[in-house]
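Slide 14.
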Amino acid sequence: IGIAANANPDGHTILVVSSAYVVNPGLYSKSVYDPMKSFIPISKMVASPNAFIVHPAVPAKSMQELVKLIQTNPKKFSVATPGIGTTPDLSAALFKLTTKLEYPTVPFNGAGPVVVAILGNQLPVGCLAITPAVPHILAGRLRALAVTSAKRAPAIPDVPTLAEAGFPGQESDTMQGMLVPAGTSPAIVKLLNADVVKILSQQEMRDRLAGLGLETVASSSGEFAAQIRIEVAKWSKVIKDAGIKVD
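Slide 15: predicted structure.
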């Protein structure tokens, strides 16, 4: 990201980022970029809701039931996440802060290992972006209790949101967005946004992304900029309140 931030703003350097872009400024004491000043947002392209999943052997069929299980057996349950500071990891931290539950989070190196660990019942609960879990959820090998998005995920429409499950204010996702270095001309920003929106508006593209558990967003530059400001503040607070440190 630091290399891209210092690149010539001529439209030939385009940066595609994940949610780490809005998390890292609160996670690290030193950052090579300013999330609000170093880049101009082009578009939040797609997003995958995070989800709380369990192995089918876990008796909980809902988040309310899971909370009761953890309250009854606080030393028995831990939550696997794709890594410290990922939005699923922070979602698990935010849920713990909100419910005042006591459970350790176990960071893995990516979502794939989390899926493997839950499938093997090595850990009972996981929180991750739904994309790698969807085939296993649909096949009944994993049970999704709730998604963290503001609305249900089309790929697993029977799974309620956390708000529907009785836990509002937990919204998060794992996003993919496009930015260009600060100083890039408005004309180039407008052109790139138009191209991204055009590509993502094609029904075939939207259907393929939905099948992977990805929601097509295709936001405007201004909408993406506003979300970046909101999420940097939100996750910085969660990181501070949860005492999460990486350096």
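Speaker note: The mean pLDDT is 93.
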